[in-house]
């Protein structure tokens, strides 16, 4: 089986695995007060799908480019997997554990790893580097939004 299909399968499993562990229709989560300007919440799943696809393609590019250099980037793949795992456990932590603080921690850590990995893969592939851009832009915003939810719901959220 080609490596690109294995990377895609692992990525999809992590993406859908996190989704299967929780429901954003949870009454506690739905009843959280949100900022008035958050009128695009329905778009967030589509945004994350796009971000996830970009990271998956980036991982494939890094794997294939490194293979041509006769070295396999297992360390890079481990960091891609860590980013995916942290991203996929965000919703279960926030919704099931009702922990916005936990969401801030895993979201912030995933974003930090994105910045680090992006700069590490830049010498391998400019395209793989630029595919981090959506996460690099959305990650801080999502972490800020989680922090804002914590501020707006300090009486019911931890």
Sketch the major β-sheet: none
Average pLDDT works out at 90
How many separate domains make up the residues? 1
General shape: elongated
Count of β-strands: 0
Structural class: mainly alpha
Mind telling me the C-alpha Rg?
17 Å
Order of helices and strands: HHHHHHH
Distance between the termini: 45 Å
Helical run tally: 7
Low-confidence blocks of residues:
none
Helix coverage percent: over 70%
How much of the sequence lies in strands comes to under 5%
Descriptive overview:
By secondary structure, the protein is mainly α. It has one domain (44-158). The chain is 74% helix and 0% strand. It is elongated and about 55 Å long. 30% of the residues are buried. The model has no long low-confidence stretch (mean pLDDT 90).
Produce the secondary structure layout.
Layout: H1 3-20, H2 27-30, H3 44-68, H4 74-96, H5 100-121, H6 126-130, H7 133-152
Helix pairs in contact: 1-3, 1-4, 3-4, 4-5, 5-7
Give a summary of the structure in a few sentences.
The protein is mostly helical.
Q: What characteristics describe this protein?
A:
158 residues, mainly alpha
